[in-house]
Amino acid sequence: MAAIGFIGLGNMGGPMALNLVKAGHDLTVFDLSKDPVAKLTQAGASAADKASDVVKGAEFVVTMLPAGAHVKSVYLGDDGLLAAAEKGTLFIDSSTIDVPSAREVIAAAEEAGMPMVDAPVSGGVGGAEAGTLTFMVGGAEAAFAKAKPVLEVMGKNIFHAGQAGNGQVAKVCNNMILGISMIGVCEAFSLGEKLGLDAQTLFDISSTASGQCWSMTSYCPVPGPVPAAPSNRNYQPGFSAGMMLKDLRLAQDAATGVKAATPLGAAAEQLYTLMEAAGADSLDFSGIIKLIQGNLTK
Ligand code: NAD
């Protein structure tokens, strides 16, 4: 069993850290908020007084923070993790952040003699709780191999995506597909309804035809065809429109940086920005069907 530091015990990090404790690892945790720390210490983890204290004696350190600025502030600088850690400590950042920040922090870690991978996840809070997350990992082969057994406690599918930052690249590309495909499904079901086609009939046909996709078969935006979909519970997430917007913005920033044309990704970002402007970003991302149908209410 390994000594593991864990920083960021929010909706995702909390249950991920809990699974590491349950697997018998020796966890030291930190979060700016006291409640999630208390939950973890009750389960058997130790609490650190500040972020950089979690590295003491740690073989691995996992971070699960909101955005690139948080990750940079926790890792870099005189009181950052890299200044406090011993050489050889393996860092795993599972936050979803911008590619340049991920590459900057990993380069700084390697320069300080510490291997590091970016390892963003897919699977949401349910996957974090069940330990079935998908990890998309960027970084050196040796660092990936060492991180894998720890990631396997929290996830089911662990992919090595290549060089540092490529985990983030895979994540933004995947979620750009997801955002675009959800809007496509919403448009098709709205058009079908206006033309007199029952949603269940369209689902039965399209889910076995070439229009089939995850947005339709797992998160169908109209209530009925997929009973577990958020559309059946007034679009309570699930995966919120705000989270989707964050990822679409990361995709657009990344696309601008390399001059990639992503016209549908840009359109998807704009549509989710309209949801945010309407105060509806806490709805599931499939709730964008309300915007498309012109009946979005907060
Ligand atoms: P969250 O806001 O619930 O949790 C973030 C935690 O980080 C909070 O507890 C906060 O107090 C803590 N934190 C922030 N700054 C800190 C600092 N300087 N030091 C210590 N702790 C600090 O967010 P979340 O939903 O757990 O998401 C975390 C990351 O995972 C994000 O990058 C998100 O995009 C990504 N993600 C989320 C989901 C999801 O469904 N929630 C799915 C996939 C990926």
Set out the fold topology.
Elements: E1 3-7, H1 13-22, E2 26-30, H2 34-42, E3 46-47, E4 60-63, H3 68-75, H4 81-84, E5 90-93, H5 99-111, E6 116-118, E7 121-122, H6 124-130, E8 133-138, H7 141-154, E9 155-162, H8 166-194, H9 199-206, H10 214-217, H11 241-257, H12 263-277, H13 288-292
Parallel strand pairs: 1-2, 1-4, 2-3, 4-5, 5-6, 8-9
Antiparallel strand pairs: 7-8
The structure holds nicotinamide-adenine-dinucleotide.
Residues 7-13, 30-33, 36, 51, 64-66, 70, 73-74, 95-96, 121, 124-125, 239, 243, 246 line the site of nicotinamide-adenine-dinucleotide (NAD).
Named CATH topology of the largest domain:
Rossmann fold
Bound heterogens, unique: nicotinamide-adenine-dinucleotide
| Biggest sheet record | 6 strands, parallel
Order of helices and strands: EHEHEEHHEHEEHEHEHHHHHH
Per DSSP E runs of 2 or more residues, the count of β-strands stands at: 9
Q: Which segments are poorly predicted (pLDDT under 50) over 5 or more consecutive residues?
A: none
Proportion of beta-strand residues = 5-15%
Distance between the termini: 48 Å
User: What is the rounded Rg?
Assistant: 20 Å
Helical region count? Answer: 13
**CATH architectural type of the largest domain:** 3-Layer(aba) Sandwich
Fourth CATH level, the homologous superfamily of the largest domain:
NAD(P)-binding Rossmann-like Domain
The best one-word shape is elongated
**Could you report the average pLDDT, rounded to the nearest whole number?**
97
Record the strand order, biggest sheet: 3-2-1-4-5-6
Q: How many domain regions? A: 2
